[in-house]
Design goal:
With 331 residues, this protein is an all-beta fold. The protein contains one helix and 19 strands.
Length: 331
């Protein structure tokens, strides 16, 4: 009988520096800044077999992976009240990221660098008698997580394993929305498109074993409508009702994906209620309930789920000290 032991470490180091400046002119305002973020992740797993009275390292199952990510960003925005009702803001952000990975066990180096320009735009119109309308667009980025980048094999069975992909790239998203709010009513119509998103692909080796690996292979889109109504029934009781309906689809760019197109409708319902338990309104009981209908995301079907939460908050010293007792998903 062979004994196996493992010794593992997983260390994260994150450093960030940010510098912002605001230039308020008489007719408009300019904000500008720069930021640096450095991330280092060291994963070290050593597997040893006890053979003939000695512990012998197994390089085929051990893993030592060093990951470094450095991102530099510069950004600016200009905002202005065009008149008493119309406000506009335009922003621009540039990010440059350098990624380095090193798998010590098999002496493999993985290097990648990329730069992206991200614009944002927001225009709003506000009239007390009609409410507030706003249009917004933003371009964003989603980077792969550490687990998806690590090329080490994690076995779930003797013939089935998951392996990270150090060649993964960041995916770019385009987000647009129309918002409306008026006397407790809030609604947003939104659309979010994600290019080059990550999907998990399962394939078979020549010996019949199977493995799963993440790849940049999906284009996804989600369009939906969310609406809510917030109303105080009494001075001591506030209630909020909300609901969402959306349509999402995912399309694979890989020919060996099991299904290269997936789509469907879904939504959610939510209820929030707050009770003021004393005249000073410093003791508040909150109750939350949400129900999510079955939904699809990146070729995966998720089951319906209901969530319940409750918290009791007490404010002291003119709201300078807050005590909270919370319970989430008790069932």
């Amino acid at each position: 009988m062979t004994e196996i032991t493992d010794a593992a470490t997983n260390k994260y180091l994150i450093h960030s520096v940010k510098l912002d400046a605001a230039l308020p002119f008489s007719s408009f305002r300019i904000d500008a800044g720069a930021a640096f973020t450095g991330i280092r992740n060291v994963t070290d797993i050593h597997i040893s077999n006890f053979i003939n009275g000695n512990w012998i390292n197994d390089p085929n199952q051990s893993n030592s992976f060093n990951y470094k990510e450095r991102t530099v960003a510069v950004y600016t925005s200009v905002e202005k009240n065009l008149n008493n009702s119309v406000f506009a803001k335009l922003g621009l952000r540039y990010e440059y990221t350098d990624v380095k990975g090193y798998q010590i066990i098999d002496n493999q180096h993985y290097n990648n660098s990329y730069g992206n320009l991200f614009p944002t735009l927001n225009v709003s119109w506000n009239r007390p008698e009609f409410g507030r309308f706003s249009l917004a667009y933003s371009m964003g980025i989603t980077r792969p997580n550490f687990g998806d980048l690590n090329p080490f094999r994690y076995y779930t069975t003797v013939s089935d394993y998951f392996s990270g992909n150090p060649y993964l790239e960041a995916s770019i998203s385009h987000n647009a929305e129309i918002n409306y709010s008026f006397k407790g009513i809030y609604a947003v119509l939104y659309n979010s498109y994600n290019h080059n998103a990550i999907g998990n692909i399962t394939r078979f080796n020549a010996d019949g074993s199977q493995y799963t690996i993440p790849e940049n292979c999906l284009n996804t889109n989600k369009i939906g409508l969310y609406a809510s109504y917030n109303h105080s029934l009494f001075s001591w009781w506030n209630i909020k009702l909300g609901g969402e309906v959306f349509y999402s689809f995912s399309k694979s760019e890989l020919p060996d994906f099991k299904e290269n197109y997936d789509s469907g409708w879904s939504g959610k319902l939510e209820l929030n209620s707050s009770w003021m338990l004393n005249r000073q309104k410093t003791l508040i009981l909150n109750f939350r309930f949400s129900h999510y209908f079955p939904w699809r995301d990146r070729m995966i079907l998720y089951s319906s789920i209901s969530l319940i939460g409750c918290d009791l908050r007490y404010s002291l010293l003119n709201n300078r000290l807050n005590l909270t007792l919370a319970v989430n998903d008790p069932f």
